[in-house]
Design brief:
The structure is a single chain. The chain is α+β, with helices and mostly antiparallel strands. The chain is 23% helix and 29% strand. It is built from 7 helices and 17 strands. The strands form 4 sheets. Strands 7, 8, 9, 10, 13, 14, 15, 16 and 17 form a 9-stranded mixed sheet that branches. 31% of the residues are buried.
Length: 255
């Protein structure tokens, strides 16, 4: 088999893994960095390319094969609270796989939601779609309903709306508005174009307001609608096209 380690020919191995429906491209890069991916019997490294049908790729000891006809699907799923955005959990906690219906497609989550957060999560077998929807450079708006402890003032939200450094970390400008306040609790609507680890919790904690609940309501044009926790529905081709158009527009406006 040809060695593609130093060649510019072929396809990047993380894209092959994504196209095979094993993981998103970003997740595939983590698998490569973890040393569980082999190309032609040797541990693969980031940036390597391969020729499908000529080179052999393995992920965790299993040969990666691309189906000749690969139907791409996307599902909107209402992730319940106390559920891991993963297909497996070594600690035995509930994962999205436990709630998702049986399907012939090998699906994986697009992005993530915290264990104790709930709301809209997309699942797909299309690595390119996952990349274009959730990668920070595509800047799609994700909207959340957030409950915090305390009565926050509009003036304090300026730091979040402005973006920049907060608590030692840099954030893009957010869209934030107060919905209502009652019994020393405030409900807000928060829209972000990025998804850093526990970002919403850290943003409000840095202002002195502990977050008590997070519910993601929408990802650009896709909303929870009438979905209940644990329920899902397949997106139409029109909805998928709408998300891809939005990511394309966001990329062009940022360049």
């Amino acid at each position: 088999m040809a060695n593609q380690q130093d060649s510019e020919a072929g396809i990047r191995i993380q894209k092959v893994i994504a196209n095979a429906g094993i993981a998103s491209r970003r997740a595939a890069e983590k698998l490569i960095s973890a040393g569980v991916v082999k190309l032609n019997g040797k541990t693969a490294t980031l940036g390597q390319r391969m020729l499908p049908g000529s080179d052999e790729l393995e992920v965790e000891g299993k040969i990666v094969s691309l189906p000749k006809r690969h139907k791409h699907v996307v599902y909107a799923f209402y992730k319940p609270k106390n559920c891991i955005t993963s297909l497996n959990d070594p600690e035995g906690r509930p994962t999205v796989r436990d709630f998702f219906p049986n399907t012939q497609q090998r699906l994986f989550p697009v992005g993530r939601l915290d264990y104790d957060a709930e709301g809209l999560l997309l699942l797909t077998n299309d690595g390119d779609f996952a990349q274009k929807v959730m990668h920070p450079r595509y800047k799609l708006w994700k909207t959340y309903f957030v409950k915090i402890k305390g009565l926050i003032r509009n003036q304090e939200l300026y730091k979040l709306k402005k973006g920049g450094a907060l608590g030692g970390q840099r954030y893009l400008p957010a869209q934030v508005k107060i919905l209502h306040s009652i019994n020393n609790k405030t409900w807000l609507e928060v829209s972000l174009q990025e998804g850093k680890n526990q970002q919403i919790k850290k943003m409000f904690q840095n202002l002195g307001y502990p977050v008590q609940k997070i519910k993601r309501y929408s990802i650009d044009c896709i909303t929870l609608g009438e979905l209940e926790p644990g329920m899902s529905r397949q997106l139409s081709s029109k909805e998928i096209a709408g998300l891809l158009r939005a990511s394309s527009k966001a990329t062009k406006s940022a360049s």
